[in-house]
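Revision sheet: structure tokens.
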Amino acid sequence: MTLQTPHLLVRDDGNHYHFLNHLMTTKVSAERTGGAMTAMEFVGPRGFGPPLHRHDVEDELFYVVEGEVWFGCGDIDAVHRAGTTVWLPRGEPHTFQIRSDEARVFQVTTPGQFDRFVAALGEPLPTPELPEPGAIDPERVARIAAEHDIQILGPPPEPPA
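Predicted:
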């Protein structure tokens, strides 16, 4: 598989993972693009947000498909609705949090490797269903993140007031 191989997936197609208490779906893998990029979609419940972190080698682009998401990175510190695109360059500490009942976000990382991180930390799911929340081991998250050039810098965002 290379960049020259067309690839089409409909809404619920892809490899699904229970990842930090939300659903991640690989749409275009790093393998398929020869390492150029990874495209994923995530669906999460109100309050979901990853720990404050920094990607050492990846840039991230987010497109809010449905719902409302707060992004925090540099001068970006606001809730954004469907139709918003957010670019987060590598090396910039950032986090985000879902502020609507649920949100669906399309995410592209370049170069591609984020799908490998999701597969290493997440649990495969046979269907695209939002998992029940469970306990998260911060030490395991930090260790696996570091193995994928992602540094955990702090806790997830506090729930909104």
